[in-house]
């Protein structure tokens, strides 16, 4: 009997196969391996962190100078994406927002300016110091900071839920992603929402890592898990999230080649003159003139994922 095509089933990674409505297919599908997406995420993240000399989180951004450099580039590097996120969150004065992985206040500061009360959770002291200093300069008194990893935060002990908005913007580096997402969902109010922002493909900086890491450190760079994996973890939890794909939009621009080398050197654990020359050669070849400066050409996509509070 010829079956009738009715849909597609994701089996692994980003590969989809068609399925057909028939008894034979039903029996076959029962025998197919359905991935544990939480475990897929965990393994991909572990492989990413096994990359020699790879730095992230508090190890990289705990240094105040590095955090200051990052904060100084916010307006030029992330303005469009921040504006899109603020429209998504659509906070009203008095709303309570939980910002997980706040960095130097990328979202916390404009949210506080809009009248929201923000709790910022961030593991890197350098980033929190920049956030506190910026809030003090502007006279913003509705931001509370908490230093720590989201997976180690006890919401009952350390926070004051519920929140009208829970947001994690490019900070989803928790190995146990299912538990992390469940805790975010639990922290939202009954009428609240959770908003995640994560990479759909390799961003420009990760493509740079893929191109140069082996030349710099003698071993390849392993990329992080992407939004396809994240969506499937949510789906397995019974959370049927909304997903919108957007271009990253903001390109990193530099005044000179040496400026680009100085920007990426600490992120890529570049220390020796030979390693700096590897970076320098790459930027000489790939940086393009744009608006009076130099920019890395190329495009990438991120996923805006959100849902209303659900009972898991």
How are the SSEs ordered, and which strands pair?
Blueprint: E1 4-12, E2 15-21, H1 23-31, H2 37-49, H3 57-61, H4 64-72, H5 74-89, E3 96-100, H6 108-113, E4 117-122, H7 125-138, E5 143-147, H8 155-158, E6 163-169, H9 177-187, E7 188-199, H10 204-217, H11 227-236, E8 242-247, E9 253-254, H12 257-264, H13 273-286, E10 288-290, E11 293-295, E12 301-308
Parallel strand pairs: 3-4, 3-6, 4-5, 6-7
Antiparallel strand pairs: 1-2, 7-12, 8-12, 9-11, 10-11
In short, what is this structure?
The protein is α/β, with parallel strands linked by helices. 43% of the residues lie in helices and 23% in strands.
CATH architecture assignment name of the largest domain: 3-Layer(aba) Sandwich
Identify the CATH class of the largest domain.
Alpha Beta
Percent helix range: 40-55%
What is the total tally of β strands? 12
Number of domains: 2
What Rg, in angstroms, do the CA atoms define? 21 Å
The secondary-structure class comes to alpha/beta
How many angstroms separate the termini?
40 Å
CATH superfamily of the largest domain: Vaccinia Virus protein VP39
- Runs in which pLDDT lies below 50 for 5 or more consecutive residues are 1-21
How big a fraction of the residues is strand? 15-25%
Count of DSSP helices?
Answer: 13
Outline type: globular
If strands are numbered along the chain, what order do they take across the biggest sheet? 5-4-3-6-7-12-8
Q: What is the CATH T-level topology of the largest domain?
A: Rossmann fold
Order of helices and strands: EEHHHHHEHEHEHEHEHHEEHHEEE
Mean pLDDT: 89
Q: How is the quaternary structure best described?
A: single chain
Note the main sheet: 7 strands, mixed
């Amino acid at each position: 009997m010829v079956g009738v095509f009715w849909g597609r089933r994701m089996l692994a990674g980003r590969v989809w196969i068609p399925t057909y409505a028939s008894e034979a297919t039903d029996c076959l599908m029962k025998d197919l391996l359905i991935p544990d997406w939480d475990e897929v995420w965990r393994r991909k993240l572990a492989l990413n962190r096994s990359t020699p000399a790879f730095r992230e989180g508090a190890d990289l951004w705990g240094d105040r100078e590095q955090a200051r450099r990052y904060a100084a580039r916010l307006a030029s590097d992330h303005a469009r994406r921040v504006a899109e996120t603020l429209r998504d969150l659509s906070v009203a004065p008095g709303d309570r927002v939980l910002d997980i992985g706040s960095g130097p206040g990328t979202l916390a500061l404009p949210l506080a300016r809009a009248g929201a009360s923000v709790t910022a959770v961030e593991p890197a002291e350098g980033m929190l110091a920049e956030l506190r200093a910026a809030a003090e300069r502007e006279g913003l008194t509705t931001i509370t900071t908490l230093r720590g990893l989201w997976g180690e935060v006890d919401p009952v002990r350390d926070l004051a839920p519920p929140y009208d908005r829970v947001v994690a913007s490019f900070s989803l580096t928790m190995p146990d992603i299912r538990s992390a997402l469940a805790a975010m969902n639990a922290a939202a109010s009954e009428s609240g929402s959770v908003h995640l922002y994560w990479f759909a493909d390799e961003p420009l900086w990760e493509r740079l890592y893929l191109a140069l890491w082996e030349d710099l450190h003698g071993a390849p760079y392993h990329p992080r898990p992407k939004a396809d994996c994240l969506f499937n973890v949510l789906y397995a939890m019974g959370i049927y999230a909304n997903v919108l794909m957007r271009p990253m939009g903001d390109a990193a621009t530099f005044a000179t080649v040496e400026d680009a080398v100085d920007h990426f050197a600490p992120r890529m654990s570049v220390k020796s003159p030979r390693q700096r020359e590897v970076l320098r050669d790459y930027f000489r070849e790939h940086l393009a003139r744009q608006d009076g400066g130099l920019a890395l050409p190329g495009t990438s996509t991120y996923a805006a994922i959100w849902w209303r509070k659900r009972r898991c």
